[in-house]
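[Q] Does anyone have a clean structure-token version of this?
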Amino acid sequence: MSEEYGSAFVALWFILFTIVFQFIVAVLAHRMQKGYRVGVVDPSLTQESFFFRAHRTFWNSLENIIPLMGLALLAVLAGYDPKRLATITWIYAISRVFYTITYYLIVTERNPSLRSVFYLIGFCACLSLLIDLGFFIT
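[A] Here you go.
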């Protein structure tokens, strides 16, 4: 089974790698803050703060990985098409990398912004898996 789903597994690993990378960046950015205190995020921070953007990127990824990982696990257990699963997980993985890059680099309070496009691509990938897998298992 792992050979069939190899590409999807690599994509899932890459997604988790991205989240660990985001965590490291957020921790380092937090430690560089003036008046750094363990576990305390200054509520007055805005998009102008790199730490704010790094922290938000990491937490957004944590919130969004839960449905995708659950759906991917269910897909593998149900015998869902490995190529289709790989395609969807890679679209999600790549969209999350671009989401991260744009959130780190573009300082804006505007919403939607460029990062919203990449968020939406990842969300739609997850949504398409949810719907397609639902049809597959019923």
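[Q] Thanks! Anything notable?
[A] Residues 53 and 104 are 6 Å apart (CA to CA).
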